[in-house]
Specification:
By secondary structure, this protein is mainly α. It is built from 4 helices and 4 strands. Helix 1 packs across helix 3 and helix 2 packs parallel to helix 4. The longest helix has 19 residues. Belongs to the plant homeotic and developmental regulators ALOG protein family. Its main location: nucleus. Keywords: Developmental protein, DNA-binding, Nucleus, Transcription, Transcription regulation.
Length: 187
Amino acid sequence: MDSPSSFPQVESSNSENTGAAAFSAGTSSSSSSSLSRYENQKRRDWNTFCQYLKNHRPPLALSRCSGAHVLEFLRYLDQFGKTKVHNPICPFYGHPNPPAPCPCPLRQAWGSLDALIGRLRAAYEENGGNPETNPFGARAVRLYLREVRDLQSKARGVSYEKKKRKRLPQQPNAVAPPHQPPSPGEG
């Protein structure tokens, strides 16, 4: 009777989380108000993933979880996505703002998946997982995320360029003043 469809529904946690799905396991804690938004989200994501493992057929222990299981979880989450990803045969393929509706599927946005994996990777280690065996850091997961990013970038006509870090301008007061030659008559 327990199947992946019995998993918690995706909920939007707030308006700042545009396009990024909040995966809620339906659990709450009185200490949640003292945690940051990130920590609350990480806890909800972790609970949802643990519920996914519990409902997996056959049930799967966290210690037996691999990168392949993480990919299965990410594909499962696509059904709750809100991002239109055009197929190459769609007339709107490559258009960020299509002028009309189309039957292309809704999927999880790459940025949402990338952030989710980052939170789950941290939660895995915080919950006693060995960093060397962290399934969320598996090569297959990194390659999948890169593939999703590239596919969505082409399909939606949106560039996912890495943001360049702004370098702080060097303050003139922080540097020693240049050496001034002695004035005439000194010396």
